[in-house]
Amino acid sequence: MLNYVWAGLIILSFVFGITSDVLDFSKDRYRNGTELTIGLSSESSLTDESRRQDVTVHIDPSFFQSFYGTESRPDSTYAGQLVRSADGIQLRFAQGVSIPEPWATIRSETSPRDNDLRGVMTFESVDSTSAVAHVTFSDVKFVKMHAIAAAAIDMAETAVSLALGLIGVIALWMGLLKIAEASGLIHSVVRVTQPILRPLFPEIPKDHPALGLIVLNLTANMLGLGNAATPLGIKAMEEMQKLNPDPDTATNSMVMLLAMNTASVQLVPPVLLVALMGLQINELIFAILIVTSISLVVGILAAKLLSKMKRFQPVPAVAVDPLNVGGK
Question: Has residue 297 been placed in a domain?
Answer without folding.
Answer: yes
